Amino acid sequence: MNQSAVTTYPVTDGVGQALEISLRGVEELLPQDEWVKKLARSEATGQPLRIKLGLDPTAPDIHIGHTVVLNKMRQLQDLGHQVIFLIGDFTSLIGDPSGRNSTRPPLTPEQIKANAETYYRQASLVLDPARTEIRYNSEWSEPLGATGMIQLAAKYTVARMMERDDFHKRFTTGQSISVHEFLYPLMQGYDSVALKSDLELGGTDQKFNLLMGRHLQQEYGQEPQCVLTMPLLVGLDGVDKMSKSKNNYIGITEEANTMFAKVLSISDTLMWDWFTLLSFKSLAEIAALKAEVVGGRNPKDAKVMLAKEITTRFHSAQAADAAEQDFINRSKGGVPDDIPEVALSGAPLGIGALLKQANLAPSTSEANRLIDGGGVRVDGATVSDKGLKLGAGTYVVQVGKRKFARVALG
Question: For burial by CB atoms within 10 Å, which of 112, 153, 157, 329 has the most?
Answer without folding.
Answer: 112
